[in-house]
Amino acid sequence: EVQLVESGGGLVQPGGSLRLSCAGSGFTFNSYWMYWVRQAPGKGLVWVSRMNSDGSITNYADSVKGRFTISRDNAKNTLYLRMNSLTVEDTAVYYCVRGRYCSSPTSCHTPFDYWGQGTLVTISS
Amino acid sequence: DIVMTQSPDSLAVSLGERATINCKSSQSVLYSSNNKNYLAWYQQKPGQPPKLLISWASTRESGVPDRFSGSGSGTDFTLTISSLQAEDVAVYHCQQYYSTSFTFGPGTKVDIK
Question: Average pLDDT in the A81-97 region?
Answer without folding.
Answer: 98
